[in-house]
Structure formats: structure tokens, C-alpha cells
Amino acid sequence: MTLEFPYRIDSRGRSAEREADARIRQMIEQVLFTQPGERVNRPDFGCGLLQLVFAPNSDALAAALQSTVQGSLQQWLGELIEVEGVQIEHVDERLQVSVQYIVRRDRERQLANFSRALP
Predict the structure, then answer these.
(1) Cis omega before residue 6 (within 30°)?
(2) CB contact at 8 A, 119 and 54
(3) Which residue range or ranges hold the IraD/Gp25-like domain (predicted)?
(4) Contact of 81 with 73, CB cutoff 8 Å
(5) By the 8 A CB rule, do 85 and 78 touch?
(6) CA–CA dist 87, 20 (Å, integer)
(7) Of 44, 59, 98, 110, which has fewest CB within 10 angstroms of its CB?
């Protein structure tokens, strides 16, 4: 946990911490790298990002990936964040995803980077 910036006192009279931001980042990562059908009680959860990576590379595929990922993030996390942009790169055997978003709670702009080795 890190201290809130700008510094402020929370409702308990202590230094406010930023644990909510770390939780949001973890939830974004779950949406990105969970395959639809992987969760028993939520078969439509996830975005299928890892499945689409092995399709032939093209501008149309890149646009479809960005649209699919952005739509999934808005569907599952739309109450918490407003997605501004998604950047997806395939570098060697790694998939790198950057998500720029605004946290609705405090309107703070965030950039989260994720990297995953491809199977």
C-alpha cells in the first residue's frame, strides 16, 4: 500500500492509502488474461485476448483486439473505471498490454502495463 497523493487524512484519522488502485489493477489483469468459459459461475467473464493472439497478424486483427479488450473492460469494470485506450503488442514470446483509464471514484488517470508469456 502507498500513501494517497495528495496527502490526506482518511475517515479513521489515519493517512489515506491507495489500496483501491492496486485492487483495480488486479481486476483489469483478471479480465485481460481470463478466457471466456474458464470460470464456472461466470462463463462469459474475460476477453479471450490470448486466443486471438495466434490469429494471422493484420491491421483488422489489431483493431478487433483493441475493441474486444476495451469492450470487455467496460463491461466488467465500467462501474470502477473509464477506459481511454488499450495498446497491445506481441514482442517475441511475450504479450504486452497497456491500458489507460480513469478511476471513476476520484477521476484520476492511470496507466497499467501487463506482460504475459505466451503458451
Answers:
(1) yes
(2) no
(3) 20-106
(4) yes
(5) no
(6) 23
(7) 59
Whether 73 contacts 97, CB under 8 Å? no
Grid cell digits, residue 60: 483488422
For the chain, what is the radius of gyration of the CA atoms? 16
H helical segments located in 8-93? 19-33, 49-52, 59-77
Exposed, middle or buried, 113 (CB in 10 Å: 0-12/13-18/19+)? Answer: exposed
CA 15 to chain centre: 27
Task: Give the Cα separation of 47 and 26 in Å (integer).
Answer: 15
89 near 24, Cβ under 8 Å? no
Note the helical H segments in 34-114. Answer: 49-52, 59-77
Which of 14-18, 27-31, 54-58 ranks highest by mean pLDDT? Answer: 27-31
Question: In angstroms, rounded to a whole number, what is the distance separating the alpha carbons of residues 16 and 3?
Answer: 6
Residue 80's pLDDT band, with cuts at 50, 70 and 90, is: very high
